[in-house]
Amino acid sequence: MAPKERQDAEVRQPLLGGSGSGNGRESSDDRADSPDAQTQVNNNNNSINAWLGLGSTSDTELRSRFHRIVAGVTAVLVLLLAVNTVRARSSGPPGPAIHITQTAFTDGLASCRAIRTASVDAAGVFRKGGAPQTRPSGNPRHTALASLTNNSTPLLLKHATIWDGVGSRLQNTDVAIANGLIVRIGSNLTPRDLLQAASAYSSQRHSTSFSTFKEDDVEVVDVQGRVVSPGLVDMHSHATIMAVPGFWGDEDGNEMAGGPTNPYLRVLDGVNALDAAIEYIAAGGVTTSLIIPGSGTLMGGEGVAIKHLTTTKTGSNSADTLTLNFGMDPKGSDGKLWRWMKMACGENPKRAFGGRGIMPGSRMGSGWLFRQRFEAARSALRAQDDWCESAESVSRQFGENNAHRFVAHRFPDALEYESLVALLRKDIRLQVHCYQVNDLDMMIRNSHEFDFPIIAFHHATEAHLLASKLAAENISAAVFADHSLYKREAYKHSVRAGQILTAAGAKVAYKSDHPVLNAQHLIYEAQKSAHYGLDEDTAFAAVTSVPADRIGAGWRIGRIAEGYDADVLVWDRPPLTLGAHPLRVIIDGYTVKSDPLTPQRPPQIAPAAPITPVLDASHTRLSAYTVVNVSGIYTQPSEILKGSILVENGVVTCVGAKCATKGTVFDLNGGVVIPGLVGVAVPLGLEEISAESGTADGQGGVADAISGLVHARDGLRVGGGGKLLEYAWKSGVLAAVAAPSGSGLVQGVSVAFRTAAQRYSDAILKDDVALHITIGNEAKNTYANSISSQFAHIRKLLTSQDSPDSPFAKVVAGKLALVASVNDPNDISKLLALILSTAPKARLIVATNSGAVNVANELAKAGVPVLLQPPRCQQKSWEERWCRPYGVSGKSTYELLKSAGVKVLISISEPDQIRSLLFEAGWGTVGDSDVGGGSGVNVNAIDAVGVVTWNVADAFGLEGVGRIEVGKKATFVGLDGGPVGFGYKIQILADNDEVTTHPIQN
Questions:
Q1: To the nearest 5 percent, what fractions of the chain are helix, strand and coil?
Q2: Counting CB atoms within 10 angstroms of each CB, which of 82, 352, 382, 777 has the fewest?
Q3: pTM over 0.85
């Protein structure tokens, strides 16, 4: 819909004083209601009446009197004309009774000129990203920071493999860095070359902001062929406004008290420059993040782009020094100073306000509130334009020094509308949280009606269903690689979305939504997208050049190129390899992380040829089948065989080099076979969509759980075409231990079942597996509202059970495992002592993501296994501050636990991440191990397989799963390589007598 037309006079009339035609040109003395004019007319009338008089007179006298009257009137009229002429020349047109000051008028004209200048090619500047022709200050951030702290050390990286962020890869190339810039890229560069390049930049820009140095000042690092890339760019993060370790007092992501539309809020006002996440996110390679408000409201406010340069490097604790625009010339010589805004549609605003009886409670309400706000902003914009036109007209007619006397109101720039007006003027790059096609369509309609551009739809799980339209609109999708099913909006997500969007011509970026996903591992999103088929260079661009371009900074970050900001990473292995992390991180020329260049890992072996034959349908029942040509069969701990696997009537009858072939013969072409994975302590089979209660079993109460009434077997549902269980079995998770959901001290008893089962009667592997409890802040409720009372209740429950059939009595007898979710190492120690003193036969499993390493020796002595859930921790709470992140120098969490003698299990915390379980196992063991670092702990693929198979089966007491054994049911997974690493695809799934080949994730 075209913008509504509006008569100019409706806006301009109030600008000038007076009434009438509104042209502003009437003299005050010509108006009937002018006091001076009225007095003059009254005086003239009195004189004439006196002259006329009454009484008889002769004709001659009458003629004489008439001539005198005419002469008198003529004289008066001449006098009046003379007076009015003088007044007109001296005072000009009428002014209002109250007018603005000269300063206000001048400021208003300045605003008008700025608007006109910016509007000359606003669309072109927006499209091109606002790059200057040259950058006089080079890297303006470095220039500004150098005045606060020391200059960065000039650096020469030698013998690098360059991934430039836009698809080019250069071998044996050097990168020269100085004054916060990449000043030279080439071969066989020397410190002298670096010095000359830096001097050339200084002279070309006629700038004094470039520091001088000598050749001896240059640090030379031979990276020995490692990949050197641009820093990663995360275009959707809440770091610094949701600071670690997750205190309520640091929760500043959403302003919910101001109603559903708050476009005028500024994230910068909430940025915590001391957030520890700034540093650990940088350690993962993210050098720039767009920090935006949360999605609780329709219009959340303005975001801010920051560099992850810590306060120790900047010499300042101010949030201002973090910003991407820090140091930039306000007049634009360093490029456009972009602003950013966040809006949201769909479920979140509906849920936040509709439940309180406040609009929006539906998508219709959301659409109206958006349009209402946009219309108010458009009216404000038109008022500005009309003021400018009228004020400039008056200024031309009467001069800038006098014109203010005829303007009643200041330039209309109410703060409430300023942000949205800036959006309509294309000074703001809009990011919109939208998932579903109907939401995407609604926002696109708004953008057409009110003429504003949308940079990207975020989350956008259905964007691939509207790919061509997004491409035509030049709207990107900022998405997760595979995170889904957590609410209805996310249900139609596809791991192929990146490929579909790219094929249609739409740009794709991967983002963290930190702390939803840990931004330290942003590269993981690109890795998974490449695993699922996206071109590697496109996947890497999706975390470098694409988000840089879309936030309007692609001319300075997101690429390895001369003249760009020196945001540079040196990787320990190719970036799209499982577990890859930077050894060196450079931001604005400053080194913020520098680990030793440990020996490089051998290159990943290419996948084998696909399996043959390929079955036409999933779950094909075969009475006999043989898998041949297997290069590695991971049967159990410390045993890898070669050869074949023979299965008859769903039972393994032979494993190894001497097996006969029977039934259908599948040739794995040198691939590997591992036991079916076991996913534990997640609500598989108990829910489909986390936020939709109608798809879930629900939460049992603590009292019911304690009394033994809450058993996951009673809530289990399988089959029916649900996505979650399909995610599981298609990724090789053929068995699961599903625990009941609950928020208190005791959740209930878990069940073990087959994930591919289509009927309940075929699903159960073990009715009752373990009793699940939680200790810590998350378990506080009316039953046990303190940690001390939680321990008191557990002590009482373990020592005073009257019925031998109660779950706690079975724990004491060793018939049920006890899974305790607990993160603080103090609480782990107390629990170990409590179990030892009250239930020495109990089979305790500690489920944690942070504290176990601190008490590893105690756990090993007690023979208690540890379930790392999730293995990649982050400090989301005070109790999780013990988290040891991946990619740190020295031993990994797994190595520390293994070296202490602790058996380790690995699982995930988000149900939809079940399809990444093998990735997580490989990353948490082999991928994060201290290769060549002198850890003294041998970590290999057997560890990776064991933490999700036989270790799980042993800890939970499961028979017939987690191993490949003759005489036991067949549950195994065949891959075309690996099994650790991306790029290896599942070729065959064996689940008893049911066989599936080439399972495809969607």
A1: 35, 20, 45
A2: 82
A3: yes
